[in-house]
Write a structure and sequence with these properties.
mainly alpha
């Protein structure tokens, strides 16, 4: 049975199941990246699996986190749709403050987690909710414009930074590894490190827009899947064809070739437009596929298990950080012996996590961190 959400509508199992599946991917990529520090450095002699799970340029890197942000935007719409559609100013004001409180809590808590887990998405997740408090009442065309502007701004900053670095200018200050000053905090939030608002705001805006149409009809879902597939395919076709032409016309180590690789990159840390478009396309397809399965088999045992886990993703995310540090750093039971170790470790964690989520939900209901989160954020 679906549980009610704050807006009064029935809770959609597809969103919870999608969160749970995305968290599996996040755990796998994080465990691999943290265990095998050189996993994303590239180089010859790597297996197909090592290319797929490459944490810097691989086809899976940050894709699961992008699904999280897309679904977060949908959740924002589901929570605020009733008051927005009704034009209830008091309700809109309450929704806005609720998002600000939740975002501020996650931002501060993520900053604390950052001390033991560099690049945590919780820090950015809080920033997304703070910004969402300003965006959820906007018309679709403004959401599209803001999302596109964030992607363009990120690409422009990355391009200018790339050229300045080639000229010998010091640009490392734009991407601080630690946060010790207000300026570093702003840089980390908007343009630096793993999930900055530029360009990740594009995924949030897309989620807010799509969330206004939930639950999707069969025709709407088909249209979204077709659009997402086209975005993904065209992106990689441009990347492949463009790089083939570039390497044909220029030496692979020349500055011109490197500029083309930067411009046509689908890697997350190059902040290119192709990355944003392709990742958004894959996230849309992933959500539609997972939500369709959840809707197709709503009473299946596996759907229920994943739905319960999806309702506890904050707790389980923090648990995956604690478990990693316990087994790797505190007890020394797991070492960096390759991709297979990371996959086994992440799989073992997730099996335990979904069992814990199911048992906790059956006996105690809402997850422990979710309970505090709702008590503070409303």
């Amino acid at each position: 049975m679906n549980s009610p959400v704050r807006s009064g509508t029935a809770r959609l199992p597809g969103l919870d199941v999608t969160r749970a599946v995305a968290l599996i991917g996040v755990a796998i990529m994080n465990y691999h990246g943290y265990l095998n520090a050189d996993a994303g450095t590239g180089g010859p002699g790597r297996s197909f699996a090592e290319h797929v799970f490459d944490t810097v340029q691989g086809p899976l890197t940050t894709r699961f986190a992008a699904v999280f942000v897309l679904v977060a935007g949908m959740g924002v719409s589901l929570m605020t749709n009733r008051d927005r559609v009704a034009g209830d100013r008091d309700g809109i004001r309450r929704d806005r403050w609720r998002l600000l409180r939740r975002g501020t809590l996650l931002y501060a808590f993520g900053f604390f987690i950052e001390w033991i887990w560099n690049g945590t998405i919780l820090f950015y997740y809080g920033a997304f909710f703070i910004v969402a408090a300003l965006l959820f009442t906007l018309r679709l065309r403004w959401l599209a414009l803001i999302g596109a502007a964030s992607a363009l701004a990120a690409a422009a900053i990355a391009w200018i930074t790339f050229n300045k670095a080639n000229n010998g200018d010091n640009v490392s200050w734009l991407d601080p590894y630690s946060v010790d000053t207000p300026r570093q905090l702003l840089l980390r939030t908007f343009i630096g490190y793993t999930h900055p608002l530029l360009p990740w705001l594009a995924f949030l805006c897309a989620g807010i827009a799509l969330g206004r149409y939930l639950p999707l009809s069969r025709r709407q879902r088909t249209n979204v899947v077709m659009a997402g597939t086209a975005m993904f395919v065209v992106t990689y076709a441009i990347n492949y064809a463009g790089l083939r032409l570039a390497t044909h016309d220029f030496a692979s180590t020349s500055f011109s070739a490197r500029r083309w690789r930067k411009l046509l990159s689908t890697g997350p840390f190059d902040r290119g437009l192709l990355y944003v478009v392709g990742t958004l396309g894959s996230a849309l397809v992933a959500f539609c596929a997972i939500a369709w399965l959840a809707d197709r088999f709503p009473t299946a045992w596996l759907t229920g298990v994943f739905q319960h886990a999806g309702q506890m993703t904050l707790t389980l995310y923090v648990c995956h950080v604690v478990v990693f540090n316990a087994f790797v750093h505190w007890w020394g039971l797991v070492t960096d012996t390759g991709l297979d170790t990371a996959l086994i470790f992440a799989t073992a964690f997730w099996i335990g996590a979904i069992v814990l989520g199911a048992l906790w939900h059956r006996t105690l209901g809402m997850g422990p961190l979710e309970r505090y989160y709702r008590a503070f954020g409303g």
